[in-house]
Model the fold of this input.
Amino acid sequence: MQFDAVTAFGAASVAAMLICYALEDRGRVWILAFALACWSSALYGWLAGAWPFTVVEALWGAIAVRRYAGRR
Done:
């Protein structure tokens, strides 16, 4: 198994998603951080050549932004 910079970036992105998702109840800023982590993960998918993963993560990011905007 090869662990290069792209793989490290992907692992960090997914870890950030997990942490932000777990902290969403503490404030809406965590929802926005989750969206950014999703888009970071989408970038990883694009760099890795996994376009279905890219599309799904980009959509999750957009959904999170909508939740962020709707929560007061």
In short: The first helix runs from residue 5 to 22.
